[in-house]
Write a structure and sequence with these properties.
The chain has helices spanning 7-10, 24-34, 54-62, 71-74, 88-98, 118-126, 152-162, 181-189, 198-201, 215-225, 243-257, 274-281, 308-319; strands at 2-3, 38-42, 48-53, 76-77, 82-83, 103-106, 112-116, 141-142, 167-170, 176-179, 204-205, 207-209, 229-234, 237-242, 262-269, 287-292, 299-304, 325-333. The protein folds into 3 domains: 2-118, CBS-domain; 136-253, CBS-domain; 258-333, Lrp/AsnC effector binding domain/regulation of amino acid metabolism (RAM) domain (Alpha-Beta Plaits). It has a 5-stranded antiparallel sheet with strand order 1-18-15-17-16. The protein is of the alpha+beta class. It has 13 helices and 18 strands. Helix 6 crosses helix 11 (243-257). It starts with a strand and ends in a 7-residue tail after the last strand. The radius of gyration is 23 Å and the shape is flat.
């Protein structure tokens, strides 16, 4: 079984919070200082009001925004958030559906407690998946190579037009260097967007791996070396794969491994209400069995549905939402051994 981790298990807690009247340059510095690919503007109760993601920052700068512009001028209002008690599959599905890569994480009161990016999820989720389950080919994408004497503003335009978070330059020795997210943010924060040259800021060194490299091994290699991408040569052409790409690729393997979509939910219940809750839960069509158990949890609930997403939808909307339930842990069964 796959014990699916929760958002709170991997979220980044160095909160990248700014005020709406601060500049884009300041936002870039906060992203850089907190190692986050986005910033959040909150209200007086620390509830997210606006989000300016790294991708959004690149886009508005590519379109001519001034780094002195206020964050509020370019941020996204009423941002999509995720709860700290949601699981990582739900988080990836939410990002994929809305084409976003940066999520504020909130508690039950809507207060920000962290932020979440695909790279935060990748390492944790691939720890649960087997070696040899997926190759990196499906996540490969082209690289964008620029002349080193171009400005960072031009680099932003190239990233925006090609929907990539980085660009590359070739050194005089013919080696590729990458203008990483952190390099670009440093240039913006220091005011070098229109004067600095790509070659002066492209400091990322690439790790090369062969075509056909294992996806889990690739995630581990990136994590161990604190890099976000790998270089692969395929059919004589150089391509890259990022740790974020492989976070989304994990969804394919999770679904393939699920022979029968069965969820097992451990639930803590308000004292004295175990019996009535168990009886009520059996009225839910997807709930097949409910057991009272001894230990740290009170009930074991077996859920069956058509897919992993459907199981988590039942857990989220029909089980965990019950006010009599204080806490849950959900496990997804990925293999069934039947007694002969």
């Amino acid at each position: 079984m796959i014990p699916m981790p929760l958002v709170k298990d991997v979220m980044w807690t160095r909160l990248p919070i700014v005020s709406g009247d601060q500049s884009l340059a300041t936002a870039a510095k906060v992203m850089l200082d907190t190692r986050s690919l986005g910033v959040v503007v909150t209200d007086a109760y620390r509830r997210p009001m606006m989000v300016l993601s790294y991708r959004r920052l690149v886009k508005v700068l590519a379109q001519g925004a001034n780094i002195k512009d206020q964050v509020a001028k370019h941020a996204v209002y009423t941002p999509i958030t995720i709860r700290e008690t949601d699981n990582l599959v739900e988080a990836l599905e939410l990002m994929k559906k809305n084409n976003i890569r940066f999520l504020p994480v909130v508690n039950d009161q809507g207060v920000i407690v962290g932020v979440l990016e695909p790279r935060h999820i990748a390492v944790k989720i691939w720890e649960l998946l087997p070696y040899g389950g997926l190759k990196i080919e499906g996540a490969l994408r082209k690289i964008v190579v620029l002349s080193g004497d171009l400005t960072l503003r031009i680099a932003a335009k190239a990233m925006d037009e090609n929907a990539v978070p980085e660009v590359f330059v070739k050194t005089p020795a013919g080696e590729l260097r990458v203008l990483r997210e952190w390099d670009f943010l440093e240039a913006v924060a220091s005011g070098a967007l229109d004067e600095g040259k790509v070659a002066d800021y492209a400091r990322g060194v690439l790790i090369k791996v062969p075509s056909g490299y294992d996806a889990r091994a690739a995630v581990e290699l990136m994590n161990e070396n604190n890099v976000l991408r790998l270089l692969i040569t395929e059919d004589g052409r150089e391509k890259i794969v990022t740790i974020s790409d492989l976070a989304f690729e994990s969804l394919k393997l999770i679904n393939e491994l699920t022979v029968k979509t069965t969820g097992f939910v451990l639930a803590k219940v308000q004292p004295g209400r175990e019996g009535e809750l168990a009886a009520d839960l059996t009225l839910i069509p997807e709930v097949k069995e409910v057991f009272t158990i001894a230990g740290n949890y009170d009930l074991l609930i077996r859920v069956e549905s058509d897919s992993i997403r459907a199981v988590y939808k039942v857990v989220t909307e029909k089980i965990r939402s019950d006010p009599r339930i204080r806490d849950t842990i959900t496990y997804i069964g990925v293999e069934i051994a039947e007694k002969k």
